[in-house]
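Researcher: We're teaching a course module on how sequence relates to structure. For the next exercise, students receive a sequence and then see the predicted structure as tokens, so they can try to spot secondary structure elements on their own. Here is the exercise chain.
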Amino acid sequence: MKKVKIIGVPEHFNYPWKMCIESGDFAQAGIDLEWTDIPEGTGKMCQMLRDKETDLAIILTEGILKDISLGNPTLLVQEYVSSPLQWGIFVAHHSPYQTVDDLRGKKAAISRYGSGSHLMALVNAGQQGWSEDEVDFEVIHTLEGAIEALQNDVADYFMWDRFMTQPIVDKGIFRRVGVCPTPWQSFVLVGHRDFVQSNKPLIESLLEIINTTTAEFRIIPSIDRTISEVFGQKPENVQEWLSVTRWSQQQMSEKVFQQTVSDLQKYKIIEQPLKYEDVIA
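Model: And here is the predicted structure for the students to work with:
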């Protein structure tokens, strides 16, 4: 049996992987898939791919393409979630800020530089017409760190998936003042170049398993109740999330790739264009 390491954020997008592991689907195909949650997010996962601490990762599109442009030897194996990620813009419940415009010139909490929370703060600034020097950052590492930073007024706002943070809003800790969807698809499955190029038949088997599950995920009986219980979400929030989330079972097309790269350059997330044939497995 071939051991394969895969990482991702501990969020409901990745629940299909855990279902397949628990059901033994990967094991039956001769794959010992070891999943590790990375609550620190994209920046940490990029470093783990560089250091060969993992073989594969489910990671934000903008974060990994930025890191690939900076020399990360990682290949894009397939799209994973093709719908945009709905980034909520949050302030502390006691905060005086009521609208996104109130946050101009204020400090954003980010998990680390190069993370999704960092890059999307830049995207939001661009969409609002703010200049780069009007956005300041406070590194907080994790969601728990963001809660502490906002409550203690160390940072003014924080951007994270709007659905995963809903329980924090429901508890009266955060208040959402806006939503900023990504201009591109949410998540991709990537792998370190050496691993991908040396294990093509194994990756084909792995994709067949996960793609079968994600294609049917939304119609699994009571999946909304399961997700609600596992992630502490209200059933109506899970149902809304399921209605706007589309998993992909395909490789990213060259057209979509070029548009994504163009958008990333527009928001100054990457400086140099990437070549499709250099990035796609």
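Model: If you want an answer key for the exercise: The first helix runs from residue 15 to 23. The chain has two domains: 2-84+184-278, 85-183.
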